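Class, discuss our next protein.
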Amino acid sequence: MLEPRAEFNEQFWSGLEKHFDQKGFLVGLTSIYWRESWKYGERAFRYCNHDIGHAMACLSFSANLLGWKTTYLNSLSTEEIGIILGLQKTTWKEFEREEPELLLFVHEDSEDFDRRNIPPDIINSFDSLHFNGEPNQLSKDHEDWYVIDEVSSETSKPVTKGEIYCYKEHEYFEKEIPEMSGEGAIRQRRSAQSYDGNTAITKNEFFTISDKTIPRSHSAPFDLEPGDISVHLLIYVHRIVGLDSGLYFLIRNEEDLADVKQNCHPYFFWKMVHDAPNMLNLYLLQKGDFRQEATFASCQQDIAGDGAFSVGMIAKFKENVENNPFLYRRLFWETGMIGQVLYLEAEAHSVRGTGIGCFFDDVVHKLLGFDDNTYQSLYHFTIGGALEDTRITTLPPYHHLKNCKS
């Protein structure tokens, strides 16, 4: 549902198009922490930023299907984004303030697009607009999770130099596209509530799913350029035909390989999976049945052990956050984008995924041998054969439009 908040004339917008040297439109993403904290407490900050990453990937995929490209304007500060979106002119209900996160530019798919900023004079022109609307009150009672506001303030982004990120251009491992359209995969995507504990996937399906998490410069969703590749995947392999059960590690940025190995237990194999595609730096750490460990690490949720495999997203943490605190949010965005890729890949291969926001990071760190937060577990995910809950009514997407008169 679209609701107009401010109006401006053609001349106002032409300055922005002149700056970008092409037509397009802006999409802002924001968080209202109370929408999560009423239920999840201080974990809400993490969950909101996971959701931002999922939303970034959704927008990139959707734009790509329509022949457009989405670019993250990484130069802008949190304050500037708030000005552009009119958030600083809004009177917020207590505990229900809306936090600016990022701004995306959706435009023609041109490889030479090099703008990651908006000039100060254009930003100031947004400040002169009159913004309409008053926020609805979400609830009468609130719990003051003040730590969320503290972290939000500490991770507010300053103005930075606009950075262009170029990733490698590997060919995809999958040569044949599954019998499903992009639109079909997106519209049927659901989160699994439980798994059957039996469904397996093939080794090639696992390679294909993992391969899609590797950023490419000209492929959605990572071509929106979320930043440096900082997240790697700890993988608990349970039921993959042709691959030994055990602990595996997918290095998404090979520059971190030596550092990750140095921080892990010295007894891990670090044996490269040789029949994996070349672009996958996939290593076997230890053979064995790790279903119980995966379940316990994910707050004892059976879904982590009942699927075909489970993932812990391990971020290069201490260096990033100490040098640039605002990257704390961006690390969660990267994990959310990976999660959205895994959701759609699961659907394309006739299984189902689910994100796991509740996990014991210390348990994961002990399993790997980490003794500090140089690397940090930030998000979990699992894929397998879903059990459908027949008590829940499922309707086709946009079913309500079929009865509308054209």
Remarks:
- The chain has 14 helices and twelve strands.
- The longest strand covers residues 99-108.
